[in-house]
Amino acid sequence: MQGSLPIDPDADLRRSLARHRAVATGMLVGMGALLVGTYHMPPGYWTDLLQASAKAGVVGGLADWFAVTALFRHPLGLPIPHTAIVPNQKERLGRALGRFVSSHVFTEAEVRRVLGRLDLARIVQKFLADPAASKPAAAALARSLPRLVASLEDGRAKRLLVRLLPRIVSGPAGARLVARVLRAFVASGRHQEVFGLAIGQLKVLVAAREDALRTAIEARIRAEGGAVIGWLAGATVAKRILHAINAELEKVEPGDSDLRAAFAEWLGHEIERLETDPERAAAIGRVLREALAHPSVAAWLIDVWGRLRAALVADAARPDGRTVALLAGVFANAGTLLAEDPAARDRLNRTTEGVLMTLLPSAQTQLSDFIAGVVANWDAATVAEKIELRVGRDLQYVRMNGTLVGFLAGGALFALLTAMFGRVAG
């Protein structure tokens, strides 16, 4: 069926080459017919002039036909030396073509010029700012995350997590991270929630252990003041102490209590020390490192890793999952940054250009080797055909011009020599 036939991508080139080749050959045949016709014309100067011109035209056309044909095949199938040049020299041609492209086309100046005209940062910004383009990219990236996570062997990932995390948090960066977390905590008011929870738990603990605390206080009074003092005042003192503790806890619970305000002030002071005091930052780093190095904490981190991995794999597969939404949000924020910050666009362009310039020498070598390898793997007939289809049309003009120039040159030379030396007797 017609629809099942393969499409020839070079069909137009083939037709154009055949058309120009037919014209060039037709001119050569016509010149030969003119030459034969001169032998049937009445003798005379103009017949001799036309005959000399036709002879030169035929010779010029034949010479250029031979030269053009010899580039791609043996003329008339005869194995004449130094013909079929392209098929016989395809490997050298491939290497030369590869060197030319890498050294004269794919140059540093040309790459810089193209990058400057493209403005990659603006292209990236438009892509990131367009939800229709960035969301599918976020979904594709999210779908690749499970494969990336699966490529991390559990044991290696856990060992890396247990070893690397304590080192990260033990330095100044760890203290700064803690300070930022605490500042966010205070700004949201969550520190008072934690404080209230602690007070509530302390009240529950005191109520649950009130009898034990009363007994312990009475015992302490007897130990310090003797049996008589303990018998007379032990129970009363214990009751008053417990009542005072509960009363103070009740005072702390309201949101405007002095103790809560003092707690907030102390917390702000500690945050400032974490950010400005190297010794305090180092002390917090040591505490964090020791805590994370504890076997129980390490086991907890491993469990967290497993849960995060399972949750990530499950969520990344959902087009409406949080992973896709998060990545889409990151893309949108990056697009907004590039749109509003010319310096960021400039940094992105300069960084991209710097990376490409660093990779350019290696890319030039690989491009040259790639082109040489592609040409070397072609068979000789394929090489000749591909090149002839692309330059053969222009070469047919060489044949046409050879025929015409030969015709004109032959006539001019005949006229000049006749004028100088007269006609040669036949």
Q: What is the number of E strands?
A: 0
Q: What's the overall geometry?
A: rod-shaped
Secondary structure: helix percent: over 70%
Low-confidence residue ranges: none
Pfam families: DUF445 (PF04286)
Transmembrane segments: 403-425
Keywords: Membrane, Transmembrane, Transmembrane helix
Organism: Neoroseomonas soli
Describe the structure.
The chain crosses the membrane at residues 403-425. The structure is a single chain. This protein is mostly helical. It has 2 domains: 8-88 and 378-421; 128-340, no CATH class. It has helices at 11-38, 45-72, 85-88, 90-105, 108-118, 120-129, 131-151, 154-170, 172-187, 190-208, 210-225, 227-252, 258-276, 278-293, 295-316, 322-340, 342-377, 380-421. α9 (172-187) crosses α14 (278-293). The longest helix has 42 residues, at 380-421. The two termini are 66 Å apart.
